[in-house]
Amino acid sequence: MSQYDETSTSPRPKFPKFHKKTRAPPSPTAEVESVPLPERVTASSSPTPEGQSPVNHSLLASPSRPIRPGDPIPVLKKNRFGTPPDVCGPWEGKVATIGSLNGFLVTSPTREYIPRYPREVEVIQTYEDGFWGEHEYSRHPQLYVEEMTHLACIPATPEQDEMLFDLFHPLHASRDWTEDRDIAVHGLGLIKREMRKSLARFEAISAADASTSRYGSFLIMLLRQAVDRMNYLPSVATRSIAVAAHVQRLALELEGLTTYLQVVLPRIESSEDFSHSVLDVVGGFIREGAVTQTWHRVGIPYWVLQPVSSEVAVWRVVQEDALPFWLSTRP
């Protein structure tokens, strides 16, 4: 039987009771002892006296706050006057702007305008003309990518070759698409015969010029597929326009690749200065210093992104241009 069984007649032992003591909260008026912070030591300050611990400046330093939406935009002023040279220095600005790129300056040493900067997006929008708006690399300057320099060499206008006019033709469903009445499904059709014939001929022209490049052969294969789809697969108007625009896009990219292989690459490999022989090509946006100097020397038009500084030579301050009128902004 247990010593403390209920049937036992012996008295139970009494254990002492422990009372929990609660501490009163500090008075809001109580004084708090302040610890003086060490004084900031500058380069001109006297050295730390012997016997005292040195000041840890990393604890006192505060990083500069990044520019946020709503912050005042730095003021950009021109600091060069008179007529600018035909070609300015690599980082100088015949024109300059800040636009919506807070903290960054966009300059061009050769152009009189600054196109809209193509901001990074997760999904590229296809508009009613079949193009991609500010991300349309065959019509609008894009940010430099090392393996795709030929995109900056795409012709900017058809002036250098009359055969290119059809590649710059703005497509629209009401003008360039017709419904096929001979098929059973209503609302399907093709690009009009004349336009299909004009675009299809670039398949053979591009194949003759760019087939020496492995990537050129790949583009030629894509162009053939796009031309076949444009010719033989009836679609709704918006899809047919998008396919025809892709034919234009690929043909212009092949033109850019040809220009890069036949004109730009020999200039890069040469030691001559071609900065005053600027090519009539799309160009691009640059952030790398070495690429800026190379493009400046070989005559590729560009717009360089650099931190805002009063040291940058600026002849004229302009606003960022809107998209060209022939690029649609309607989905």
TrEMBL record:
Basic residues bias: start-end ranges:
14-23
**Annotated segments matching region Disordered:** 1-75
> What ranges does the record list as Polar residues composition bias?
1-11, 42-61
| Superkingdom of origin | Eukaryota
What protein name is recorded for this chain?
Uncharacterized protein
Source organism of this protein record: Dichomitus squalens
